[in-house]
Each structure stands twice: as C-alpha cells, then as structure tokens.
Amino acid sequence: MRKLKLGAAGLGRAFSLMAETFARDPRIELVAGADPREAARKQFERDFHGKSFSAVDDLCALKDLDVIYVATPHQFHVGNVETACSFKKHVLVEKPMALSLDECRQMISAAERAGVRLVVGHSHSFDLPILKTKQLVDSGTFGRVRMITAVNFTDFLYRPRRPEELDTTRGGGAVFNQAAHQVEVARLLGGGRVKTVRAMTGDWDPSRPTEGAYCALLAFEDGAFASLAYSGYGHFDSDEFMDWVGELGQKKNPDSYGAARKALKGNEAELKDSRNYGGNAYVGPSASFHQHFGSLIVSCERADLRPLPGGVMVYADAEKRLEPLPAPKLPRTEVIDELYGAVVDGRPPLHDGAWSMATLEVCLAILESARARKEVPLSHQTSASRT
User: How many C-beta atoms lie closer than 10 Å to residue 378's C-beta?
Assistant: First the structure.
C-alpha cells in the first residue's frame, strides 16, 4: 500500500483533532509540521519524530511530501494553499475553506494550475452516521428528502479565543467557525443545490463581540428545505439530546455545567496556548462513539431519519428501528478515505473546491441575510450526486 507523506501546516486545535488519525492510519505518514509556537514544534518532534519548521513556506518546500494539511487560522488559508500548490503538493485544508468567494476561486485556480488535488475538511458531513443517512436517502426506500431540521447548542463562544476569533470580519464567530458543519450536512443530504437563504444572527454578549448564534432557512432547488439553529452561548447543551455523547464522540458529564465560562480567567491567549497542542495543559481527544454536530432529523416522504453517535434511527410508516454502526476504530478516517481516493486512486472528491465554495456561499449568505433582513439568492451551488 502506498503511503501518503503528509506535512501539517498549523499545529493548533484543528491539528490536535486529526493527529491521532494521521499517526495511526496506515495510508498516512506524518513527516513534518510547521507552527510559530516553539512548544508545539517540540511536541510534534517528540510525538512524530519528524521535522518541524516555524514557517509554512519552508514546510511546503520539502521535496519528499505528497500532501500539505493546512490547519492555520482561517485568514491564512488562501496564501498557504497557493504556496503548497506552487510546490506541486496536494492539499487538505480545514474548513472554512476561506473567508470570501474570491479567495476560494484563487485556491481552486492554484490547484488546477499545479495539477494537484484540493480537498476541504474535516466537517461533520464526513461522519459515518451522516454517510449512512445519505446511503439510506439514496436507496429511494423512503422517498425524497423534504425537510431537514438541525439544532445544536454548545459553549463555543466561551472557549479560549484569540482576538480574531471574536471578530467576524477576520473569520471569527459562530457562522464562519460552526455553520459550515450544519450547512455541509444539510447540503449533502438535501442534494447540494441551495436556492435561497433567509437568516438571523445573535450577538448578545458585548464581552464576546461577534455572532454567537444563528438561525437559517435554506430552500433547495427541488422544493426541499432545511432549518439550522445554533447557539454557542453556553447555557443549554443539546448533547442532552444525544445521550450525553459530545461532538467528538466522547462521553460527557452533565454535572460539568458552566465549566467553559468558569475557566475563562486571567490571560485568555495564554489559556488557549496552554490547552492547545504542545501546551502544558494539553489533553488529546478520546472517543468511544461516532462524532456528531447536534440533533438532526431528515424528513423524507415516507420516514424520518435521525443520525446518532451509534447508528441511524429510522422512523418509517409502520416501524421504528436502529440501523447500527460499529464503534469507530479511529476518528475521522472518512477524511483519509476521500483524500487517499483522490490522490492515489484518482477518484474525484466530494469535498473539493467547488463543493466547499458552495458551502461558504451559504455561510456568507447567512451573514448577509441577517444584516440586510432579506432573503439571499445563491448562484455557485453544486450537486451532491458526485458521491
């Protein structure tokens, strides 16, 4: 089996959630990393015995790399992807793909000129329960998707943040950081082509000056629609609906209510660094269940489908049953499936530049609709039929 030699640009939170997969998936060899933080570089060298750099350009220049995983802050994605492509490296870039449609076009063009693959992820549309739900939808057994309902309440806004993470103009806030998950899931299950968006956002805490909540109605070209509701204000926790299994597939203690707010004391940047990869309080993720992004119900003509951390519940005309899924052996292997299939096997990835630009278009429309108090039409949507 060919191994893809991978270099990680950015050793922060996103990297920490993919690190175990990179380390243990036999199709990947993680050989180098880049980050401005010395502590993160030293941790990387200890964990992976690879090379480390303070600059992404130096990482991309390594000759023995196949793929650059871009997990830097959002505002650097376009430049980092263009650099990786200039060195003829395939790219896996974290969501959101970029902060504007023009930046997306630049990234797509850079990959096309270089003849390399561009894959965007992780988003929760990669999760196995979502893919199983898509399989059930595609079977035709339950008729067409008519309505999708997604609800997620978290403590997102009260986790330690850098200043730009609380500034929407620089890629902060709930829409840029969280909506991509719900939007991608809805687009995957609803067919991909969103026609219009109507939305509202909430900015309710002056000490966290960005939107912490949103509610959006997505209308699809075929008449289906999706309602997306998200709050990161740290009050109700919708993991209660998921039997207290958290987003990353970990069991949660409901008695830890309010922990995120309580922990925000002292220097927030130092607190974030301490919890990040390489920090003195860093703890890697641990999961027993499949990952998720809150409660989701897919209403078809003859059944409601509800993906869960252990399978998919089917509520059909005459029966209710669970389509079980085996426990994950390794988190986020579906990302590697798509990346490896694209680079090694030549399969067109679903989460390519065009697909991910369409997701960003929806996210930008959520912000525009909330500002203008109007419905926003879309023009860059792509189909999910490529799966």
Answer: 18
Q: pTM here?
A: 0.97
> Among 137, 147, 178, which residue's Cα sits nearest to residue 293?
178
Q: How far is CA 259 from CA 153, 235, 250, in A?
A: 15, 11, 16
Q: How far apart are the first and last CA of the chain?
A: 24
**pLDDT value at residue 387:** 45
How is residue 243 annotated by DSSP?
T
- The residue that leads in pLDDT, 190 or 274, is 190
Mean pLDDT of the chain: 96
What pLDDT digit, counting tens, does each position of 265-296 carry? Answer: 878 888 888 888 999 888 888 889 999 999 99
Q: Bridge-partner residues for 201, per DSSP?
A: 214
Q: How many CB atoms lie within 10 A of CB 303?
A: 20
DSSP per-residue letters across 52-120: EESSHHHHHT-TT-SEEEE-S-GGGHHHHHHHHHHTT-EEEEPSS--SSHHHHHHHHHHHHHHT--EEE
CA-CA distance, 46 to 65, in Å (whole number)? 20
* pLDDT of res. 386: 52
Query: What are the strands of the beta sheet with 118-120, ordered from one edge?
Result: 51-53, 28-34, 4-9, 67-70, 90-93, 118-120
Backbone angles phi, psi at 245, to 5 degrees: -100, 125
Here the tokens at position 240 are 């209660």
Q: Which of helix, strand or coil describes residue 274?
A: helix
| Out of 9-18, 104-113, 282-291, least confident range | 282-291
